[in-house]
Amino acid sequence: MNVARELSGRAKSMLRAVAAGRAELSGGREPDLYVDGLPCCDQMVTHDLVHAGLLRARRAVGLDERTDAELTEEGRAAIA
């Protein structure tokens, strides 16, 4: 399966924002993504990217907290 081919343009843009150090994730099983401090417009894509193992929180945080988001190796490969 070629993950990069299956990702939408929006999903790739979200991953690029994470790669650029502009994104944070909230805590919890279904984290929310924030880019440049603002909530991302498509939380369902965020959940899909996290569950697919393409991005993750840099550290564990509570539900009302945020931490930097980071790409996994698979996430980096998806936008390479």
Low-confidence stretches at least 5 residues in length (pLDDT < 50)? none
Q: Radius of gyration from the CA trace?
A: 11 Å
Under CATH at level 1, the class stands as: Mainly Alpha
This entry's quaternary arrangement is: single chain
SSE class: alpha+beta
CATH topology: Arc Repressor Mutant, subunit A
Intertermini distance: 16 Å
Q: In what range is the share of β-strand residues?
A: 15-25%
Percent helix: 25-40%
Strand order of the largest sheet: 3-2-1-5-4
CATH architecture type = Orthogonal Bundle
Tell me what the structure shows.
- By secondary structure, the chain is an alpha+beta fold.
- The chain has a single domain (3-79), classed as Orthogonal Bundle (Arc Repressor Mutant, subunit A), CATH 1.10.10.
- 39% of the residues lie in helices and 22% in strands.
- It has four helices and five strands; from the N terminus they run ααβββαββα.
- A five-stranded antiparallel beta sheet has the order 3-2-1-5-4.
- A hairpin with a 6-residue loop joins strand 1 (23-26) and strand 2 (33-35).
- It is globular, with a radius of gyration of 11 Å.
- The chain starts with a helix and ends with a helix.
TL;DR?
The protein is α+β, with helices and mostly antiparallel strands and 80 residues long. A hairpin with an 8-residue loop joins β4 (55-57) and β5 (66-71).
Which characteristics define this entry?
Arc Repressor Mutant, subunit A, alpha+beta, globular, 4 helices, five-stranded antiparallel beta sheet, 80 residues
Q: How is the topology of this model organized?
A:
Blueprint: H1 3-6, H2 9-19, E1 23-26, E2 33-35, E3 38-39, H3 43-51, E4 55-57, E5 66-71, H4 73-79
Antiparallel strand pairs: 1-2, 1-5, 2-3, 4-5
Helix pairs in contact: 2-4
